[in-house]
Write a structure and sequence with these properties.
It comes from Thamnophis sirtalis. It is found in: Cytoplasm. By secondary structure, the chain is an alpha/beta fold. The chain has one domain: 3-Layer(aba) Sandwich (Rossmann fold). 42% of the residues lie in helices and 10% in strands. It is built from 13 helices and six strands. The strands form two sheets. It has a four-stranded parallel beta sheet with strand order 4-3-5-6, with helices on both faces. A two-stranded antiparallel ribbon has the order 1-2. It is globular. It starts with a strand and ends in a 12-residue tail after the last helix. The structure holds adenosine-3'-5'-diphosphate. Adenosine-3'-5'-diphosphate binds next to helix 2, helix 6 and helix 12.
Length: 287
């Protein structure tokens, strides 16, 4: 079972944790509520970071919820078998996480007033982060050499498919009132300012002390040492953090320590070809 993928509408999903009937239910049956808050990303783009920020904003800066409840219960990944059940059962206002591309997402979202935060990260850092993740997350296939993995990533031949398709699909919503996009790099540059912007988008008026608490409790160090957020409660047969920690480096630009000049240029070539019509400039495009 482990390390085998099944195909669903052109995407690969691991055999454990995911199941086709659940993916169908997400798309067709899941009832989005107008006060739902969706935390959507391509994997390794800062999902759990945003989940912590949203959990803390929901609690007005009080860290108690984050310190007592695992992140997968606070903001379940709707496409997983267990996450779907948790999301259906959770009380409003729900936080729901997802790595699904827009074309496979809950249809009822697009008719709702639910809010979505979409976090995007420099795809070269996503590649490096995913490369390490694939070596410690046992449902994923061994990534092989970085050169092989780069090729798979650029082709979209990895779970959840192409980063380019994901970003293009979701960024179609960029002018919608209930859609807010932010980058991992902006969170890095100005965490406080980003939290203020996210709170405003969510209609939450937090005072300075509450914002300070969100900033402190969503820092890399706080999260890395919080067992409700650092996946140390995940069984070892799913994640082996001795191979690579989930909270690995938490920096921008680590790709420069991994990709050769030729690999980086190959990436740039595909990036420009695939995203030239997007009409959005990301922080890494300016450098
Ligand atoms: P690295 O592997 O580059 O360290 P996701 O949650 O989407 O799986 O993303 C995981 C990545 O986000 C990892 O990147 C992880 O270290 C980083 N991350 C998680 N929390 C963070 C935080 N509070 N600050 C900075 N980076 C964080």
């Amino acid at each position: 079972m482990f390390k085998e993928y099944f195909q669903y509408k052109g995407l690969s999903f691991p055999q454990v944790i995911y199941a086709e009937p659940v993916l169908q239910m997400v798309e067709k049956d899941f009832q989005v509520r107008d006060d739902d808050i969706f935390n959507v990303t391509y994997q390794k783009s800062g999902t759990v970071w945003m989940l912590e920020i949203l959990s803390l904003i929901r609690s007005n800066g009080d860290p108690a919820w984050c310190q007592t409840t695992p992140n997968w219960d606070r903001g379940p990944w709707i496409e997983t078998v267990i996450g779907y059940r948790t999301a259906v059962a959770n009380k409003s206002p729900r936080i729901i996480s997802s790595h699904l591309p827009a074309r496979l997402f809950a249809k009822s979202f697009f008719r709702s007033k639910a809010k979505m935060i979409y976090t995007v990260r420099n795809p070269k850092d996503v590649l490096v982060s995913l490369y390490h993740f694939a070596s410690m997350f046992h449902p994923y296939k061994d990534p092989g050499t970085l050169d092989q993995f780069l090729e798979d990533f650029l082709k979209g031949d990895v779970p959840f498919g192409s980063w380019f398709d994901h970003v293009k699909g979701w960024m179609n919503l960029k002018d919608k009132e209930n859609f807010f996009f932010i980058t991992y790099e902006e969170l890095q540059e100005d965490l406080r300012g980003s939290i203020v912007r996210i709170s405003k988008f969510l209609g939450k008026d937090l005072d300075d002390a509450a914002i300070d608490s969100v900033v402190a409790n969503a820092s890399f160090e706080s999260m890395k040492s919080n067992k409700m957020s650092n996946f140390s409660l995940t069984p070892k047969f799913i994640m082996n953090q001795k191979k690579s920690a989930f909270f690995r480096k938490g920096i921008s630009g680590d790709w420069k320590n991994h990709l050769t000049k030729a690999q980086s240029e190959c990436f740039d070539h595909v990036y420009h070809e695939r995203l030239q019509d997007l009409g959005v400039t990301f922080p890494w495009d300016k450098k």
